[in-house]
């Protein structure tokens, strides 16, 4: 069984967000980047399934520039066998999906896993696009994944409950908790990751189909106004004239 796990390079959740002077790009200066936390569920579950099925392999794939390689090496240290980096900035969801689909098609992977979304843009788009481009099923968002031969049983979240589905490989699945407990690399993994293959390939297809017009931070929170409980009229006036909610 060949697993392809797609990982994103995202700012640490404690990052203070700012943009370039023209407000068209995220300001990376001084920012610590990490593996997208949702992708860690996909990576760990793929490694667990590999360990339970002799002869299986796990390849990690990242669409990004050279500065993403430390986190790719971290994924290798956690337990992936090899890695591929598409040498291009992740411009938009379709561009990224196009790169993933090209690598998946060329490599003949059985299971393509990724997090349900990246924590920077929260698009929840790429997995569905990859499935459509490859003409294979997509299950999202999956909270549980088990394999029996080439048949997978997945538990996915739906409105008001859960759904259990079966699908035959090849397929795409996006992952979230509580699929597994994400692993951290141990010293042996860190040492062996240095010699594991990391292949760099050029991007394919067209340029991004969307462009950012402008980024903007949310408005700063205003101070709280305390109204005496007996002064309902003043409260109604403020809600109507300032908050404009009534």
From TrEMBL:
All residue ranges annotated as the Electron transfer flavoprotein alpha/beta-subunit N-terminal domain in the record: 23-210
Alphabetically ordered keywords of this record: Electron transport, Transport
Molecular-function annotations in GO: electron transfer activity
SMART domains membership: ETF
Pfam entry (one): ETF
Record family assignment: Belongs to the ETF beta-subunit/FixA family.
Protein name, per record: Electron transfer flavoprotein subunit beta
Naturally occurring in which organism (per UniProt): Hymenobacter nivis
Taxonomy of the source species: Bacteria, Pseudomonadati, Bacteroidota, Cytophagia, Cytophagales
């Amino acid at each position: 069984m060949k697993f392809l796990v797609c990982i994103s390079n995202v700012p640490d959740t404690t990052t203070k967000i700012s943009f370039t002077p023209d407000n068209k790009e995220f300001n990376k200066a001084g920012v610590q980047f990490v593996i997208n936390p949702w992708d860690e569920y996909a990576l760990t579950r793929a490694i667990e399934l590999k360990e339970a099925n002799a002869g299986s392999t796990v390849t990690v794939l990242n669409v990004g520039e050279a500065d993403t390689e430390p986190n790719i090496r971290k994924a290798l240290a956690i337990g992936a066998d090899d890695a591929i980096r598409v040498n291009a900035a992740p411009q938009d969801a379709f561009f990224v999906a196009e790169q993933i689909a090209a690598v998946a098609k060329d490599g003949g992977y059985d299971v393509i896993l990724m997090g349900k979304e990246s924590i920077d843009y929260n698009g929840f788009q790429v997995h569905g696009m990859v499935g459509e481009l490859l003409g294979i099923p997509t299950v999202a968002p999956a909270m549980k994944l088990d394999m029996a031969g080439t048949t997978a049983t997945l538990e996915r979240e739906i409105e008001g409950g859960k759904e259990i589905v079966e699908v035959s490989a090849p397929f795409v699945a996006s992952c979230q908790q509580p699929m597994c407990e994400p692993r951290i690399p141990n010293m042996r993994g860190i040492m062996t990751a240095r010699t594991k293959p990391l292949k760099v390939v050029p991007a394919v297809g067209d340029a991004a189909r969307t462009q950012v017009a402008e980024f903007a931070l949310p408005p700063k929170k205003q101070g709280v106004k305390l109204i005496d409980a007996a002064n309902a009229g003043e409260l109604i006036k403020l809600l109507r004239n300032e908050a404009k909610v009534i």
